[in-house]
Amino acid sequence: HHLQNRWVLWFFKNDRGRAWRDNLQQITKFDTVEDFWALYSHIKLASKLSAGCDYALFKDGIEPTWEDARNKRGGRWLISLAKERRHIDLDRLWLETLLCLIGESFEEFGQEVCGAVVNIRSKKDKISVWTQEAENQKAVLHIGRVYKERLGLSTKTIIGYQTHADTATKSNTVAKSK
Amino acid sequence: GTRIIYERKFLLECKNSP
Lengths: 178, 18
Hints:
The complex is a heterodimer of chains A (178) and B (18). Chain A has 178 residues and is of the alpha+beta class. Chain A contains four helices and seven strands. In chain A, strands 2-1-3-5-6-4-7 form a seven-stranded antiparallel β-sheet. The radius of gyration of chain A is 15 Å and the shape is globular. Chain B is mainly α. Chain B contains one helix and no strands. The radius of gyration of chain B is 10 Å and the shape is elongated. The N and C termini of chain B lie far apart (31 Å). The model of chain B has no long low-confidence stretch (mean pLDDT 92).
């Protein structure tokens, strides 16, 4: 069963001795449902990764970096998870995110989606969906609404969208949400 | 053009089929 897009799974392991970009590795590419499950069943669950590691799933041709041509004007819908939720919700929410991407759940705004990242950190884990144009409000809001619903988040849960530019230059710990 | 969309239910069923 072919997917609309070919996707690349990336892995990031924080090794302070090396340049940031060298810690980011392409694992493999896939463009069928069957290959997705073969990969997913083969790798460690996100909740089992050590602190400082990330998984990223991005469309082939887009790197999971702010600098990539298709990311630099974009931003991300950000889900922050308190530490105790790692072993309860993290894997379920990350898998649902992956299914939204490969299943093209954002309809006509799917082409605005670049990819998704899960950051495993000692304080707070984060899951985010990266979109290409932060100023494309219609697309950003549609993607956010569908995503929040798919994750089954309660209506009172607030999720924020941050431009990568803000995230990259944030002085305090929390970049402002648009 | 056409868009290839997979519902989550279908994707999860594919996971369990041999």
